[in-house]
C-alpha cells in the first residue's frame, strides 16, 4: 500500500480578509512547504494519477504527494499558479461555481463571504495551462444537510456549469467543509464525478475510497513539525476512513439545525 499526503490549501495570501485568515497560508510559507516536499523525496503528481490508481489503474510512485486548493480564490491565479509553474508542479483547484464571475463583474451566488474570487477568463487560462479544474458545489452548502432536490442542484448543476465553461468533462469533486454522507456520495456518483475529496486530516492511500479521498488541511497555524511529519508519511490516520460516532452525531445535530432554519457549517469533518 502506498500512502499519499493529499494537501488541502484554501488561500495563499499575505493579506486575507479576517474570516479567511485562519485558512490562508503566506506565500513564503507555501514555498517552504514545496521545498519540504522536495527535501523529503516526494514527487508531486496530479490528482488524476491518484484517482486512476484508486480505480485500479497504473501504480503510483513509491513516494508522492498531491496538491489541492478549495473554493477558487483569486490569489490562486496571481500567486499560486506562478509558483507552481516555476517548479513544474501540478495541482487541482475545486471551484464553487456560484462564486466564479465574469471578468469585471462582482462575484455572487455562493454562501462564501465576499472576497476576490477567480473569474471565468482566469479559470479558462488555468485550464489551458494544465491546472485541473474540479467542482466544489454551486454555493458551498454543507451537502449532508441538503434536501434531495437541493443536493442534486449543488452536485449535478455545478458539474454542467463547469463543463459548459471549460468545454470538456470535469471529473473531480470536493465536498464543501468536507461534509458528506452515503446519500451525498451516491448523488456525486450519479452526477458522473469519478472522484470526490473529503478532509479527514489523514493520509490517503492506494486503498482509499475514491469518493471520500482523505486530505490534510494546511492552516496558517499548521506547525512546521506537523508538516514535516506529513512529508515523511507520519500521520495518526490513513485512509480509507469510516464515519465515527462523533461524526454521525455532529451530522444529526447540523441536520436538525438546518431543518429549524438556523444551519451551521463549523469546522470540516471527515
Oligomer classification:
single chain
- The CATH class, by name, is Alpha Beta
Q: Output the CATH homologous superfamily.
A: Glycoside hydrolase/deacetylase
Strand content: 15-25%
Structural class: alpha/beta
Largest sheet: 8 strands, parallel
N- to C-terminal separation? 21 Å
Radius of gyration: 17 Å
Per CATH, which architecture? Alpha-Beta Barrel
What share of residues is helical?
25-40%
In the predicted model, the low-confidence regions spanning at least 5 consecutive residues are none
Q: Can you put this structure into words, describing what you see?
A:
It holds the Pfam family Polysacc_deac_1. It is found in: Secreted. Keywords: Hydrolase, Signal. This protein is an alpha/beta fold. It has a single domain (3-242), classed as TIM Barrel (Alpha-Beta Barrel), CATH 3.20.20. It is built from 8 helices and 12 strands. The protein has helices spanning 27-39, 47-54, 75-87, 120-128, 148-166, 182-191, 224-231, 245-259; strands spanning 3-4, 6-9, 11-12, 24-25, 43-44, 64-71, 92-95, 132-135, 172-174, 195-200, 204-205, 213-217. Strands 2, 5, 6, 7, 8, 9, 10 and 12 form an 8-stranded parallel beta sheet that branches. Strands 1-11 form a two-stranded antiparallel ribbon. β9, α6 (182-191) and β10 form a beta-alpha-beta unit. α5 (148-166) runs parallel beside α6 (182-191). The longest helix is centred in the middle third of the chain and has 19 residues, at 148-166. It is globular and about 50 Å long. The chain starts with a strand and ends in an 11-residue tail after the last helix. The mean pLDDT is 93.
Amino acid at each position: 500500500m502506498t500512502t499519499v499526503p493529499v494537501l488541502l490549501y484554501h488561500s495563499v495570501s499575505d493579506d486575507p480578509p479576517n474570516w479567511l485568515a485562519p485558512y490562508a497560508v503566506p506565500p513564503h510559507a507555501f514555498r517552504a512547504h514545496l521545498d519540504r516536499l522536495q527535501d523529503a523525496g516526494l514527487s508531486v503528481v496530479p490528482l488524476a494519477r491518484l484517482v486512476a490508481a484508486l480505480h485500479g489503474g497504473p501504480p503510483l510512485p513509491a513516494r508522492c504527494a498531491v496538491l489541492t486548493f478549495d473554493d477558487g480564490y483569486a490569489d490562486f491565479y496571481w500567486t499560486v499558479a506562478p509558483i507552481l509553474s516555476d517548479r513544474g508542479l501540478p495541482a487541482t483547484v475545486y471551484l464553487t461555481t456560484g462564486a466564479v464571475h465574469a471578468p469585471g463583474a462582482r462575484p455572487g451566488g455562493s454562501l462564501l463571504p465576499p472576497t476576490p474570487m477567480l473569474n471565468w477568463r482566469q479559470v479558462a487560462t488555468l485550464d489551458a495551462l494544465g491546472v485541473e479544474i474540479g467542482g466544489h458545489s454551486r454555493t458551498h452548502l454543507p451537502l449532508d444537510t441538503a434536501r434531495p432536490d437541493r443536493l442534486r442542484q449543488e452536485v449535478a448543476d455545478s458539474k454542467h456549469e463547469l463543463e459548459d465553461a471549460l468545454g470538456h468533462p470535469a471529473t473531480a469533486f470536493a465536498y464543501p467543509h468536507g461534509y458528506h454522507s452515503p446519500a451525498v456520495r451516491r448523488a456525486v456518483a450519479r452526477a458522473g464525478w469519478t472522484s470526490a475529496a473529503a478532509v479527514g486530516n489523514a493520509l490517503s492511500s492506494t486503498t482509499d475510497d475514491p469518493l471520500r479521498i482523505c486530505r490534510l488541511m494546511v492552516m496558517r497555524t499548521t506547525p512546521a513539525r506537523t508538516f514535516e511529519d506529513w512529508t515523511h508519511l507520519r500521520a495518526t490516520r490513513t485512509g480509507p476512513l469510516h464515519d465515527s460516532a462523533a461524526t454521525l452525531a455532529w451530522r444529526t445535530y447540523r441536520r436538525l439545525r438546518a431543518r429549524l432554519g438556523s444551519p451551521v457549517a463549523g469546522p470540516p469533518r471527515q
